[in-house]
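User: Please check token order:
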Amino acid sequence: MTEVDRRSEIVFLYDIKDGNPNGDPLDENKPRIDEETGINLVTDVRLKRTIRDHLYKFRGKEIFVREISAENGSIQDAKMRARDFLTIDEPLDSFETGKNAINEKLLADCIDVRLFGGTVPLELKVKKGKNETGSITHTGPVQFKIGRSMHKVFMKHFRGTGAFASKGGASQKTFREEDFLPYSLISFYGIINENAAKDTKLSEEDIDLLLDGMWNGTKNLISRSKVGQVPRLLFKVNYKEGNYHIGDLNNLFSLKSDLIDEEIRDISQVKIEVQRLIDVLGKNKDKIGNAQICSDGSITFTYDGEEIDFEKSLAEAGINTEILTM
């Protein structure tokens, strides 16, 4: 396994048509929208759930944060889940002995802990005393900001009839209501911290799986509210040295369209302006190892309004590029 010893930044663009990328359970599960700006919001928790589910279901990787039911039908809490990784019998000689055993097994087995860290509560049986409590805490090497649409969005309210009567003997069917977005192009920013990576034993192979989970997890999230999500661009900048990054690369991408924001309905109706991005990367080229790109080919990139080949323009700015295949 190759140790992560350099910092990286990630920008991930994906879009959705006629769906709800992240419902707010405290607001009738409506799409999350910043009321002041009209921007669609998607939590980092939603993206991490997408990645976790993909790695567990499709790549066979163990994850700590997943729902497990006991024989009596109850769902494990975090303390019960932690005990799944206790490799020695209780009662323990000391609380620290059990804590260290669980921590070692957690980091060895659970890719989501290596990627995202977490706080794991513990309650362990020890000799000569009552149960002792404590926790294991790891700062995640991979951190994402809240995702934001690159344009204002329009939310539609839909009403329809259900398949069944509202109650026994009734002649009318139930009604259902839902809210969705006709279109949203969402941008996520992430950073990989090589210092925290040492603590969780994060490897470059884990990072490859992270990118796979972002791209293919988004593509394969086929539920009623998420069908229609399409990954458009995954852009990763790897730096040559530790403790350095440019920061907020997502803000160097901007959306241009002849339509007003709320009328946008397809990726073909927008262009992504990258002049600021290419200029900033070019000025910092001596500190950049390379840039990795995965694109579905649908985005039109521009530099100062002129259409360009994104990869070629990066190379002309002195940035080594690598095309990722997912």
Q: What stands out?
A: The chain has two domains: 8-62+142-323, 78-138. The helical segments are 44-57, 78-83, 95-109, 111-116, 194-200, 204-219, 275-283, 310-316.
